[in-house]
Amino acid sequence: MDEFSLIQRYFSRHARAGHEGVVLGVGDDAAVLRPSPGHDLVMATDTLVSGRHFPADMTAFDIGWRSLAVNLSDLAAMGARPLWCLLSLTLPEADERWLAGFADGFYALADETGVALVGGDTVRGSLSVTIQVVGQVPANKALRRSGACPGDRICMGGTPGEAALGLRQWQQGVHQGDAVERLCRPLPQLVLGEKLRSVASACIDVSDGVLADLGHLLDASGGLGADLRVDGFPDTPLFAGLSRQERLALQCHGGDDYLLLFTLPPVFNRPQGCLELGRVAAQPGIRLHDGNGELLSLPGSGWNHFSSQGDG
Amino acid sequence: MDEFSLIQRYFSRHARAGHEGVVLGVGDDAAVLRPSPGHDLVMATDTLVSGRHFPADMTAFDIGWRSLAVNLSDLAAMGARPLWCLLSLTLPEADERWLAGFADGFYALADETGVALVGGDTVRGSLSVTIQVVGQVPANKALRRSGACPGDRICMGGTPGEAALGLRQWQQGVHQGDAVERLCRPLPQLVLGEKLRSVASACIDVSDGVLADLGHLLDASGGLGADLRVDGFPDTPLFAGLSRQERLALQCHGGDDYLLLFTLPPVFNRPQGCLELGRVAAQPGIRLHDGNGELLSLPGSGWNHFSSQGDG
């Protein structure tokens, strides 16, 4: 089977119209799509390069899942419901087994989240995956990074740092377990994102780490600051064996969680399953306090990810 | 200036709302876009890998122009008017001069065609450019590859083979002139595409070569064939010095022209500036005839581009 047929075989599952809004799917010069009246479109793209955004020895299934997940997470952060995606795959060779595994992982998450693959491109080169996702929100209802106000609660859709722990384990040769699962198969918080549309004042998904992404949100909200409480970062069983300082470093700086980080006006309670990390402050800078309100030094230090343009 | 600031500096020109349908541009987790009522969206993506889809020594300006052009050409082939795009740039290093040149070429064509860059992603890796374009057509008016009928004229938006000639010259060390310009700065035929919406029965853009792309169109139209006339492939001054056979090989098999290839029911005349290559036939296969109707052998042979998924 030649390469052209392989691609056709593995990436045409959503080819036919029938998915919501798909007038014409894979197979022409472009896809033709019909948006719902009264809705805004939300579009994002992320590229994942082998060895940089995922371990080179990650399974094809997990690469397929994860590549789609990190893109859907951007839609979740906007409160959007996913509709369609395009896949640009750069492959060193057409390896049928690899393609089959990648497609299985990709479609497993696509089917779970209702997003249809409507087009793409496959080229020869070093392994890299670029996905573009399109979702929709009722007009003017997209969540943004801007909009946080002093006094807002700072909340998160789960425990940060577990994916970073998974990466550490992976690098130590441990390729299974709950933490590794967090790294390999992040679950974009689409349901939470839709719920937050009516309550959150600002939202971002955590890809670069809590402090870095909270910094982006506070900057976008007009240069605000934050007071975080150390007990906002829970010591879950996954972190057993780590010192508090090691755990906090992972939880403050570790990326790859793809959990939503959002701010809530004081009038709203935090949604079930979410953590409260602290409060937005008028004074710039991010500070960490212990249970008595005493200032703790922030673990480690932030850094600029080259991979972050801040809008993907 | 760090890498993050460089990217912000060079790719935020369309960041603010103000372009048609842009509610929120570069700078959040995703862009927010408002489609026009009564229109279908048309979406495509193409990846260009250095040394594979453009010469590694092409100027940054031309890489920027060309990467956008080949994507817009997919919209032209659907009869769509471009609205928005996302840019995923994989770079070996953050070279300010290169980025400035790339951005100049990219925005030169973006401004000429009215498409707004609303988001993207930049990562470290070997040089590769992925662009996603979104355009719109009045509902149900997109041109497709299917729809050709026996007896339809086969037309083309200009002379094929000139970009392939440019590539040959480039590889011989000639880096300027009209043919090289065709290769480096293809002009997507967006105006022609919109005109064809009301007349063409099928349309595709020529990226893989006339015979290969005509084959895709005929296959999509139900396994039809074509009778081409050799005088449909004109001997323009650019081809001076080539034998007829060399020229025809470039014109039949050379890719990269990004001209529209389309079929017209006999009742319509071919649009100004377009060539007529021949007629669609019920009998499968593509045949080439001389002025007396005698069969000529087709020059060279076709091949499968790995880069073509057939839908990008």
Quick structural gist:
By secondary structure, the first copy, chain A, is an alpha+beta fold. The first copy, chain A, contains eight helices and 13 strands. The two termini of chain A are 36 Å apart.
Report on the structure:
The structure is a homodimer of 312-residue chains. With 312 residues, the first copy, chain A, is α+β, with helices and mostly antiparallel strands. Chain A has two domains: 136 residues, PurM-like, N-terminal domain (60s Ribosomal Protein L30, Chain: A); 144 residues, PurM-like C-terminal domain (Phosphoribosyl-aminoimidazole Synthetase, Chain A, domain 2, Alpha-Beta Complex). In chain A, 29% of the residues lie in helices and 26% in strands. Chain A has eight helices and 13 strands. In chain A, a hairpin with a 6-residue loop joins strand 1 and strand 2. The longest helix of chain A is centred in the first third of the chain and has 19 residues. Strand 3 of chain A pairs antiparallel with strand 2 of chain B.
Low-confidence stretches of chain A: 302-312
Architecture of the largest domain in chain A in CATH? Alpha-Beta Complex
Distance N to C terminus of chain A: 36 Å
Instruction: Give the % helix of chain A.
Output: 25-40%
Main sheet of chain A, how many strands, which sense, barrel? 7 strands, mixed
Structural class label of chain A? alpha+beta
Q: What does the oligomeric state look like here?
A: homodimer
CATH-derived topology of the largest domain in chain A: Phosphoribosyl-aminoimidazole Synthetase, Chain A, domain 2
What is the topology, as strand order, of the major beta sheet of chain A? 8-10-7-11-9-12-13
